[in-house]
Design a protein that fits this description.
Layout (H helix, E strand, L loop, with lengths): L1 H38 L2 H7 L11 H33 L5 H5 L4 H34 L4 H16 L1 H32 L3 H27 L5 E4 L2 E4 H26 L2
Helix pairs in contact: 1-3, 1-5, 3-5, 3-7, 5-7, 5-9, 7-8, 7-9, 8-9
Keywords: Membrane, Transmembrane, Transmembrane helix
Length: about 270
């Protein structure tokens, strides 16, 4: 059932995301092409590389196009976070698809499937935004050798250390998941009290602040009693801190499932 629900969530997300991603790629290619064909010169290349006259020879139109390009990329970077939170809030307000309402599914499976799709969509959107910015820098720097060499060097470091790179990637994904599950818990908590947004929103925000405060206080105390300290890419970590982060995320997940099954859907 979890696999089927996950497939259903992916299908829903794809129906919404394909037009956004397609439109983003077409628009960014168009803006990049206009910049390269009509406005590119040595001054622009130096400006992209951070040297020269800081674009004083550039035109207002070029600056506007570049600003629009980076603005759209930044918007795409944060769009999935906002959209995912909005969709989850609507789901808890009883505005799911009819098929989802008719299927008797355990709450933790619903939350887990939504969380996985949230993470996948966020990674895809943010990687697309990052690649578009990289394309702008490479193309408008006229594929400057220093930038290309630096990009290839960083890529080789990642490839040459797959174990460490995988650990860092998994840790980053878990932190993103922790942020999502914290927001989901706060929304579930507020919806378990009332479905009126003018009351539920302040309650959710207050719970979010309270959870962050508890996390900071607890983490500060745990750091004082480290267990098995180690270095992770220059960052001092301890096994006790990692266990605490895992337990904190697990508690939020179980709390969200409990509230959704016992206080919201029943």
């Amino acid at each position: 059932m979890l696999i089927r629900l996950l497939g259903y969530e992916i299908y829903k997300k794809w129906k919404v995301s394909r037009n956004i991603l397609g439109g983003f790629i077409v628009l960014q290619v168009l803006l990049l092409s206009i910049t390269r064909v009509f406005f590119w010169n040595d001054a622009l290349s130096k400006m992209v590389m951070g040297i020269g006259d800081n674009g004083q020879n550039g035109s207002f139109t070029l600056g506007l196009i570049s600003l629009l390009y980076f603005g759209i990329a930044t918007g795409l970077f944060f769009l999935p976070i906002i959209e995912n939170i909005y969709r989850f809030e609507k789901d808890l307000s009883g505005k799911q698809a009819v098929l989802e309402l008719m299927i008797p599914i355990i709450s933790w499976k619903k939350i887990l499937s939504k969380l996985i799709v949230m993470l996948l969509s966020t990674i895809v959107f943010q990687m697309t935004a990052a690649l578009s910015i990289m394309a702008y820098v490479l193309v408008n720097s006229n594929f400057n050798k220093e930038i290309v060499d630096s990009t290839l060097y960083n890529a080789r470091i990642i490839i040459s250390s797959p174990g460490k790179s995988s650990i860092v990637a998994l840790y980053a994904i878990y932190i993103l998941a922790l942020i999502y599950i914290l927001v989901m818990f706060c929304i579930a908590f507020s919806k378990s009290i009332t479905h009126k947004n003018r009351i539920a929103v302040p309650i959710g925000i207050s719970m979010f602040i309270a959870c962050i405060a508890v996390f900071i206080v607890a983490a500060t105390q745990i750091v004082k009693f480290p267990i098995v300290e180690f270095d992770l890419f220059g960052i001092e970590e301890s096994l006790s801190s990692l266990i605490f982060v895992l337990l904190f995320g697990g508690s939020l997940f179980l709390g969200s499932s409990f509230l959704m099954e016992n206080r919201i859907e029943n």
